[in-house]
Amino acid sequence: MDPLQRKFTIERPHLRLVFDVLAGRGYRILGPTIREGAIVYDELEAPSDLPVGWTDEQDGGAYRLKKRADEAVFGFAVGPHSWKKYLHPPVLRLWKAERKGDGLQIAPEDEEPPKYAFIGVRSCELHAIAVQDRVLLGGTYVDPAYKKRRDRCFIVAVNCGQAGGTCFCVSMNTGPRATFGFDLALTEVLEGGRHYFVVEVGTEEGGEVLGEITHAEAGVEERASAAAVVARTAGQMGRSLDTAGIKELLYRNYEHPRWDEVAKRCLTCANCTMVCPTCFCSTVEDVTDLTGEHAERWRRWDSCFTLDFSHLHGGSVRTSNKSRYRQWMTHKLATWIDQFGTSGCVGCGRCITWCPVGIDITEEARAIRLTEPAPAKREWGQGE
Ligand code: SF4
Ligand code: SF4
Known about the structure:
Blueprint: E1 7-11, H1 15-24, E2 27-35, E3 38-43, E4 54-59, E5 62-67, H2 84-87, E6 91-100, E7 103-108, E8 115-121, H3 123-136, H4 144-151, E9 154-159, H5 169-172, E10 184-191, E11 194-201, H6 204-211, E12 216-217, H7 220-234, H8 246-252, H9 258-265, H10 271-275, E13 282-288, E14 294-301, E15 311-312, E16 315-316, H11 321-340, H12 350-353, H13 361-370
Parallel strand pairs: 2-8, 8-9, 9-10
Antiparallel strand pairs: 1-11, 1-12, 2-3, 4-5, 6-7, 6-14, 10-11, 13-14, 15-16
Helix pairs in contact: 8-11, 9-11
Bound molecules: iron/sulfur cluster (SF4) (2 copies).
């Protein structure tokens, strides 16, 4: 059988070898770890840096870590960080310039970023990376900083063994099983006193890495156990979103009273855009030193929730909370489809959990849909 189709097992103690082999190949290992009461992504030295035995409880505007009854290594959902912080960094110097005589000499940034190995990438996050690939690599202008990072990264995906309270990947058809975009994919199984991972190989390099780690061919029962883990997770989704005709639904409802209602709650704090793994907007800032001899241009993440973001001559186009929330949600679920051929939302639930007032994109879409007549009863041509 093709090695890319076969499945293997790695026993829990041998997870350490994944780290050793990747480090030996020059990768900087990044993955989930606990910092200040949340599971975030950071540099890892060993599997003991992972949130072993921890889980998270999530709801609108609520996040809490809790001890698990077992020693699961990946027994939690996604936290406030996403992999975009490494592939599309929040702050990045684009170039620097020195005064030379009457002119300026500009030196582009040519530093090579490290080779990243991402451990524990969830299926919704693979879809989010694919969305950013489409936006930052797939158009006329390729983002060179993103490309350098993306080309060199090794991805160890994890099929989710537990859904979070705000997850809705099943609705978005983006999870919980990783189906593409990984070098290796693990499903964690704890049963009958045994703790192991069922492994799928996604690339040739993934196969080479697995070849250096103690592993065995997965048997029928082990494969079935892994499939049961993913099926159980799919049944645990904390949220759902009816995506049928969602683009047209939002286009028909630009003036819906629900936008006024949500605007009363929205703080325009921009949290939802910062935590969203697909949001990619940025701005640039130029800085000089006091002598005027040295200047730099920096790029930093920006958000459609700021007034400046839509500033044209004469002022901001979106001055109200209503216009900014409506722009964000309509972009995610509707105009993104026209722009990039895919939804801008992968159902990770971060914008719901990390909204300080608990605004829920699934609830906002549902509230608008509920006020429309059922499709079968709609008059011909109405709202088309
Ligand atoms: S929806 Fe929530 S997170 Fe997003 S800008 Fe409004 S208050 Fe902030
Ligand atoms: S819009 Fe919200 S649920 Fe959708 S991908 Fe972004 S953060 Fe996740």
